[in-house]
Design a protein that fits this description.
This protein has one domain. It starts with 9 loop residues before the first helix and ends in a 12-residue tail after the last helix. The chain is 27% helix and 14% strand. It is built from 5 helices and 4 strands; from the N terminus they run H-E-H-E-H-E-H-E-H. The protein has 171 residues and is α+β, with helices and mostly antiparallel strands.
Length: 171
C-alpha cells in the first residue's frame, strides 16, 4: 500500500508495480497478455495536450442506452498533469470469477461498439484514436481489488485537486 504513489508518468505507474502498457487496439485483437487474476487496471493517455474528443465515440449501446456525452462535459472532466484517464478493478478476493482479462475483454468489446456490460469508464471511447491508449494492470493476490481501486482513486484525488481520473464517474 504505497502512499507515495504518483500518477503523472508511465514511470510512476511502473514504480508502483503496474505492468503491460499495451495499446488498446492491440488488446482488442489479442488479449492473451492480460493476466487471468483479480487486480486493478488503468487506462493511460500518452498525448502531450488535451485530446480531441468525438461527439460519437466507439462505445456500444448497452441496453439501448447512448453511451456518449457532450464534448463540453468531456472537456470539463479532463484532468491535466496525469497520464491516468481511468482506474478500474476486476474480481474479488474471495470469489475470483472475474479476472483482469475477462473484465478488460468486456471493456474492450464495449469500446469496439459491442453490446457489453462495461459502461464504466466509457468516456475514454470518445477520445479520438482511443486505440492508442495504453492499458496497464497490477494483480492483487493478497488484497481485495475493490479496496485497492478505492485507495488509488482517493490518492489520485489528493494529488489532483479533488478530481477523479477523467473517466471515473464515481469514487
Amino acid at each position: 500500500n504505497d502512499t507515495s504513489m504518483k500518477f503523472n508518468t508511465i514511470d510512476d505507474l511502473k514504480a508502483a508495480g503496474f505492468e503491460g502498457f499495451i495499446p488498446v487496439a492491440q488488446l482488442q485483437t489479442d488479449s492473451t497478455a492480460i493476466p487471468r487474476t483479480a487486480g486493478v487496471y488503468m487506462v493511460v493517455y500518452t498525448g502531450e495536450n488535451i485530446p480531441e474528443f468525438l461527439s460519437r465515440g466507439t462505445g456500444g449501446f448497452f441496453k439501448g442506452k447512448d453511451p456518449n456525452v457532450s464534448i463540453t462535459e468531456l472537456e470539463t472532466n479532463w484532468v491535466e498533469n496525469t497520464c491516468v484517464v481511468y482506474i478500474g478493478k476486476a474480481g474479488k478476493l474471495k470469489n475470483c470469477k472475474a479476472t483482469i482479462q475477462s473484465r478488460l475483454k468486456q471493456y474492450l468489446d464495449f469500446g469496439a461498439g459491442k453490446k457489453s456490460g462495461h459502461k464504466g469508464g466509457r468516456y475514454i471511447w470518445q477520445i479520438k484514436n482511443s486505440g492508442n491508449l495504453l492499458l496497464c494492470w497490477k494483480p492483487t493476490p493478497d488484497e481485495d481489488p475493490e479496496t485497492v481501486e478505492t485507495a488509488l482513486i482517493a490518492r489520485f484525488k489528493e494529488q489532483h485537486g479533488g478530481h477523479r481520473p477523467f473517466a471515473n464517474l464515481k469514487d
